[in-house]
């Protein structure tokens, strides 16, 4: 079964609302960023994926999010103008962390290749 455009739009609205709630209610240490959401097909469960800056503060972020889940649902009701609010769950986005690590490795390899090419060029001209 394909996901409808309405489902995708609703998930986008929930992503934006979650990000705004966290921005206004959470401390900036750690900085919590919503990376994506996963809305169940029956619209009854929403998993909000987050990352933190600095690394290693995921536990603090999860404590904040779980303690404030009912306030976040109330925020959704007030600002989202929706009839039914899904049950909220929170997960640390390890996939995003992995992607960032891979980006860093690619940059490091490119830098090493550039340095090696410069050394090679220097040796040729000597």
Describe the structure.
With 126 residues, the protein is an alpha+beta fold. The protein folds into two domains: 5-92, K homology (KH) domain (GMP Synthetase, Chain A, domain 3), CATH 3.30.300.20; 94-126. It contains four helices and three strands. The protein has helices spanning 5-25, 58-67, 69-80, 94-125, and strands at residues 31-39, 45-53, 87-92. Helix 1 packs across helix 3 (69-80).
Radius of gyration: 21 Å
Largest sheet: 3 strands, mixed
* CATH topology heading of the largest domain: GMP Synthetase, Chain A, domain 3
Bin the strand percentage: 15-25%
| Name given to the CATH architecture of the largest domain | 2-Layer Sandwich
Estimate nothing, just give the exact number of structural domains: 2
- The number of E-state strands comes to 3
| Structure annotation, total helices | 4
Shape: elongated
The sequence of SSEs as H and E is: HEEHHEH
Mean pLDDT: 88
The CATH fourth-level homologous superfamily of the largest domain? K homology (KH) domain
Structural class: alpha+beta
Kindly report how far apart the N and C termini lie. 66 Å
Low-pLDDT parts are: none
């Amino acid at each position: 079964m394909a996901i409808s455009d309405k489902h995708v739009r609703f998930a986008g609205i929930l992503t934006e609302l979650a990000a705004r709630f966290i921005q206004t209610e959470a401390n900036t240490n750690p900085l919590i960023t919503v990376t994506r959401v996963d809305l169940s097909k029956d619209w009854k469960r929403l998993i909000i994926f987050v990352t933190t800056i600095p690394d290693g503060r995921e536990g603090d972020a999860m404590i904040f999010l779980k303690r404030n889940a009912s306030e976040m649902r109330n925020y959704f009701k007030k600002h989202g103008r929706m009839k039914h609010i899904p049950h909220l769950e929170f997960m640390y986005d390890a996939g995003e962390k992995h992607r960032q690590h891979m980006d860093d490795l690619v940059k490091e390899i490119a830098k090493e290749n550039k340095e090696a090419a410069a050394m090679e060029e220097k040796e040729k001209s000597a």
